[in-house]
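Course assignment 3, question 2. Fill in each field.
Student: A.L.
Task: Predict the tertiary structure for the chain below.
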Amino acid sequence: MSRPVVLFLFGPTAVGKTGALEALSDRPIEIISADSMQVYRGMDIGTAKPDRSLRERLPHHLIDIRDPDEQYDVGAFVTEANRAIEAIHERGRVSVVAGGTGYYFRHLLYGLPQAPPSDPKVREQVQREIDRMGLAEMHRTLASVDPQAALRIHPHDAYRIGRALEIYRQTGRGPSGFAAGGPARADVAVTSCALDRDREELRSRIRARVESMFDQGLRHEVERLVDRGYGPGDPGLRAIGYREFFDAAGGLRPAEEDEAIAAEITGSTRRYAKRQRTFFRRLPRVLEIPAQEVSRVVELVDRLCDCFA
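Answer field:
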């Protein structure tokens, strides 16, 4: 093949993507993680990272590449994913981009939004307003000018709130007003596959996953991160499964509140999964496969691997 062969394998949280990858572990493929939080070191349980055993059998890229206090955005993902796709292709293997961060898939396929570059003067002005008014008020300001962006950006995400308002101040349009770079790219041969489950079954799996995370020691993982100096203002700890452990003042909530914390994580995860399903269904030319029918994913990958035979 003159072009890299790429499979997009996506689906909502807890649908069973890792189980599908387990079934593919002996195929000539490599995985590129499209998960915005699995990039962070030390955040294993709460992000449901593939375990070491699977990662030893099946090469994974873009996992454990940042510390929790480092910003990681879609531009960095697209750059690093494209680099990995080329290297995997040179090894005669198929790239499987797997995860649940929808806008990573969209921008890897269609290109980055054509928003203007950062203007230091505008950035400084926005930052002064954040310092003076607080993130909550600035997030409300963003919601008034770009509701879609405000839904996508967490109220504690100072970097993305600031960048979104900076774009609006420069152009009169928020980030949602900028389309992706253009039509679907033609330099790679992309096949898109979405895993899904019945709504109630998915809700049950999310609840079971959260319970399992606490059994595995999620609280201890958060405590270790706090001991290392990380907190709720850092990009990594703004993720679902971590931010719920902190109170409004940024302190760690006591273990006596773990039942309530687990319920909050479950609710947030269910809402996120709903948004994921909506997003993935809007992508064109997607093969939908029930997550229970893993053999169909294996057959699909085998056909793609035949391109190199």
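Instructor remarks: The mean pLDDT is 92. Residues 6 and 190 are 5 Å apart (CA to CA).
Grade: pending
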